[in-house]
Amino acid sequence: MLAFIIRRALQAIGVLFAVGLIAFAMFRFAGDPVNQIVSLDTPAAEREAVRRSLGLDDPVPVQFTRYLVRAVQGDFGISYQFRQPVSALLAERMPATLELAFAATLLAVIFGILMGVYSALRRDSLLAKVFQTISLIGISLPTFLTGILLIYLFSVTLGWLPSYGRGETVRLGWWSTGLLTLSGLQALILPSITLGLFQMTLIMRLVRAEMLEVLRTDYIRFARARGLSTRAIHFGHALKNTLVPVITIVGLQFGSVIAFAIITETVFQWPGMGLLFVQAVQNVDIPIMAAYLMLVALIFVTINLVVDILYTIVDPRLRSTIRQPA
Do the Cβ atoms of 208 and 128 come closer than 8 Å? Predict the structure, then answer.
């Protein structure tokens, strides 16, 4: 097991190194950073001074090594637009994005599993058909359109929920949260539904398909022959084995929720890292763009590592495979 974790960790480091190379290339080939820092009428001598201060006169391998060393330490440079450290800007916006991602994922997992199990056990019922219709709508509609429709219905027409912003927040040390205020909770509802709808329908369809497949297996027939109760068969045996592939999907989807919260944060003007990235693209703020790329890569490889470990814990067959020599 330890060798498996070390092997996966080394693979994760290799992925981060490759992403770091891509992020560094953004600095080199996406424009001259000096032009983003100084004005057009800045004398050539001042431009050269700025270039030397940024280390742009050094050889490319030296610049790349320095960039990786600073990135490992959490130093991604200074934002061209905000004139502040990029790490500080990301730390300020990170609580909003993580709260939105956790809320959307929790919503997707709870309702996705419940709807999937019900659709599998009562697949001919009217409610199961309604759930199937909802899943088709959730998969078909693009995220930005879902957000706009929710804003029109619940904000513009009914006036029940806010259409933008994060509401009132409370600071707990360096972390800012809106979960402790009424306006913060109200502001979280529409963005979390918008962001979690696609994941919810995906989990629902996966759980339904896996549940139907598991219910047809021999050990379920054997459990029925032993006289076990329907509840024990469905939830003690079938659901437990159904959730094995769901763990992988939920883990990977959580990384996708964070990475692709850009659209939802833009539609609702949610002050998270995704909105900061959109503003960076509009202003060619390369340090923020590169840092966001590195951060998303770190989140993905970390989640992949955790999912692989959980997979071996849930499925004993994988543990026996890991112990076998390659």
Answer: no
Residue 188 in 3-state DSSP? helix
- DSSP string across 29-41: HS--HHHHHS-TT
pTM assigned to the model: 0.77
Q: In which residue ranges of the chain is CATH 1.10.3720.10 found?
A: 86-323
Per CATH, which fold does 86-323 belong to?
A: MetI-like fold (1.10.3720)
pLDDT in tens, the chain (326 residues): 667 677 777 887 888 888 888 877 776 666 666 766 677 777 778 777 877 776 777 777 887 888 888 888 878 878 877 878 888 888 888 888 889 989 998 988 889 888 888 888 887 788 888 888 888 887 888 888 888 999 999 988 888 888 888 888 888 877 888 888 888 888 899 999 998 888 888 888 888 888 888 777 776 777 777 777 767 767 666 777 777 777 777 777 777 788 778 888 888 988 888 888 888 887 777 788 888 888 888 888 888 777 777 766 666 555 555 555 44
For 2, residues 6+ apart whose C-beta sits below 8 A from its C-beta are none
